Amino acid sequence: MSDVVALGSPAAMEAMASLVDRDHDFRVLRRMPPMRRNVVRGVRTGMLAGCAVHVETTGGRLADDAIIELALQRFWADADGRIVMTGRPHHWLEDPGRPLPPEVTRMTGLADPDLVGRSIMDPVAASLIADADFVVASDASFDRPFIERRLPLVAGRPWVCTTCDVEWKANGFTIGGLPHLLTQIGLFYDPHRASTEVTALLHLLDHPLPFGGTVLKAAVEAAARPTWAIDAVGAPSGTADLLEGRGYLWNPVGRHWSKEVSAAAFDDEYEWIVVRVYGGTAKPRFRSMTWCERHAADG
Description:
The protein has helices at about 1-5, 10-20, 100-110, 110-115, 120-130, 140-150, 180-185, 195-205, 215-225, 240-245, 265-275, and strands at about 30, 50-55, 65-75, 85, 90-95, 135, 160, 185-190, 225-230, 250, 255-260, 285-290.
C-alpha cells in the first residue's frame, strides 16, 4: 500500500513527468498554478505597475452585449520585465439583465442563476486599473471597449495587447490564442473563465524570451511606440480586396478600412494608398496613435 501511495504522490508524479520531458519525442504539460510572486517587498523606483484584465461577455457586439465576468490582478515588474510582486486577484460576476445565450453557457459554464443579483464593484475595479502604469490583456481590442464602456472613469489608460504587441514567430512560438501560447511554455489550464485567463496571461507575460527580456518587456516596449493609423475613408468600390491583401482591417464602427504602421513605414504606405487605391484623386485620413488610443472602441 505504501508503494502505491508513494507512486501517486506529487513528488513522484513530478519525477516521472521530468523523466518523460527529457525525451524529445514527448512534451509534458503541467497544470497552471496561481500567480503569486513576492520577490521584493514594497514598490521600488524603476518598477512598472501593470493590471492584467479579462472579460467574459454575453457576445461580441459592443452595442448589444454586456460583461458577465470581470477579472483583474495588479502586478509589478522590474526593468527586465520579470514580475517580482503580485497583488490579490479580483473577480466579479455581473447580471446582464437578460438570459444568457446557450453558447455562452456552454463555453463558460456560467448559467443565469449564477449571475442573478451579482455586480462588479465599480470603485475597486476602477481604482485598480486607474492606478496602474498600463493595462494588459490577451485581446485588448475586445476587452478594452467593454471595460471602458462599463467603467468610463478608466477610459484613456495605456493598453498593452499580447496578441499584437509581441513578435511571436520571431521568438520561436507558433501563433495562437492564449491557451495555445501557454502550452508552448509547458502549462495548461481550463479556459473561458476570466479569473483563469488572467492567471494564464500573467504566466505568459513573465516568460523569458530567447533574445533577452520577457514577453512583458517586449510587449510594453512595442505598445509604447507611437504609430500612425491610416483610415481608407471613402475608398472607391472594388478596392476591398486590394486593401485587405495589404493588411488593412475593416473598422465596423467607422465603416472604413484601417491599417496601423510604424513611423518609418508611413511615407511608403501613404504613397501606396494614394496611388493604388485612390488613383491620385483623393487621400486617406491619418492620425497619430499611442497606447492610450490603441484598441479603444473608436480607435
